[in-house]
Amino acid sequence: MANPFLRQATGLLREFGVFDAIWINLGLVGIFFSLTFIASTGPLVGGDPLAGGLTTLVFMFFIALAFSIVSILIPRTAADYVFVSRNLHPAFGYVGNAGYFVATVPLFMGITITTLESFGLSALFAYLGLATSNPALVNLASTLSSPVYEFTVGGGLTVIAALLPIFGYRAFKRLSNVILPLILIAVAVMFVVLAITPTGVALSRLQAVSGNPSLLSTVAQFGQKNNTPAPSLSSLANLLPLNAVYVVGFSYIISAIYVAGEVRQVKRNMPLAILGTLFITFVIFYGSVALSYHTFGYQFLSNLYTMSILFAQSPLPVVPYLDFLAAAVSNNLFVGSFIIIMATVQLFWYQTNAIFVGSRLLLSYSFDRI
Predict the structure, then answer these.
(1) DSSP assignment of 23-42
(2) What are residue 107's DSSP bridge partners?
(3) 3-state SS, residue 16
(4) Contact present, 85 and 264 (Cβ < 8 Å)
(5) How far apart are CA 74 and CA 11, in angstroms?
(6) Distance (Å, rounded) from C-alpha 62 to C-alpha 13?
(7) What CA–CA distance (Å, rounded) separates 242 from 249?
């Protein structure tokens, strides 16, 4: 007897195209979070940024390829969970994906609660306060950096972000189509600012914005005492920790596999989405490190981050992560504000993506009555 159904039911509609899948990947990669982490940790560990990025890219290519193949073989929600649980053992599938769920939802959402302030709101208010000589905004930035306000404000924003998926995947898709392109535009604007600003001009502008005429000498003296010599850029030993730093950024390039059951033309779109995300993020991550070294100088950044992060003695009202530094040297209040605002939006949008994708993983568990 012929099958009366035109297709087997999946329970979900296939309404995501290749760009939707890329947006989901980039949303969970956390573009500004990852580039900020890489650009601020790179000067602390040393190692050549191009060699470190390329060697990590080669390693991640095979992982991306494996997940692409799995998504083609089993085009279902949480395809890797289904593949492992059916072909190896249900326990392996559950434990492996439970680890992913814990990392995505409680762990990284918890981290983002704090970075919404340190990378985002605190940096924005500190920049606006310094650029407009407004002490109230600078004080607000310092207040938001305190643990109580970090968790209160970040937690409140996370609750709002977590509620957005309730409005359905179509609303999520529309918002992604607006937010992710704006985030990429902000990254491009930041890269242009860094590329066209000579080192001498950048350091001069940063010192002027800080309102501290001894900023550069203070950082240099601290580095001479506590960071001499700076971690070598040419050392092979330093390449391994730099690889690990890059891996943190690349770790979520496969996130679209959790919505494989909702992607159209999955055999074409999933490999394009996963491998495309890998190469997009490589350009962004390497570009953020290389351009920051070009603009501010490796030695200055190594001294600054050693002082601000390792010793917790920032010479500025906030830890000067890359979005703040780029805004400070942009010489344009609107450009600088746009960069930091979009960094904040990206952090907020990560929380929404984590809930959206996490719900798909829980859905796959429910199919198996877990």
Answers:
(1) HHHHHHHTHHHHHHHHHHHH
(2) none
(3) strand
(4) no
(5) 15
(6) 29
(7) 11
In a 13 Å sphere around the CA of 176, the CA atoms on its Cβ side amount to: 26
Work out the angle at residue 357's Cα, subtended by the Cα atoms of residues 352 and 363, and round it to the nearest 5 degrees: 130
Other C-beta atoms closer than 10 Å to the C-beta of 261 total 24
pLDDT band per the 50, 70, 90 thresholds, residue 289 = very high
**DSSP string covering 152-182, please?**
HHHHHHHHHHHHGGGG-HHHHHHHHHHHHHH
The single-letter code of the amino acid at 301 is L
Task: Give how far Cα 310 sits from Cα of 45, 246, 296, Å.
Answer: 12, 19, 19
Alpha helices in the chain (DSSP H): 18-29, 31-45, 49-73, 79-87, 90-102, 108-115, 122-131, 135-144, 147-163, 169-196, 199-210, 215-226, 239-250, 266-296, 298-305, 322-329, 333-367
Tell me the two tokens of residue 171. Answer: 């609303």
* Alpha-carbon distance values, 309 to 286, 302, 313 (Å): 21, 10, 7
Report whether pLDDT(355) > 60. yes
Task: Please calculate the CA angle 364-178-100 and round it to the nearest 5 degrees.
Answer: 30
Contacts of 148 (CB under 8 A, 6+ apart): none
Going by pLDDT thresholds of 50, 70 and 90, the confidence category of residue 369 is: low
- Give the lowest-confidence range in 90-94, 189-193, 230-234, 363-367: 363-367
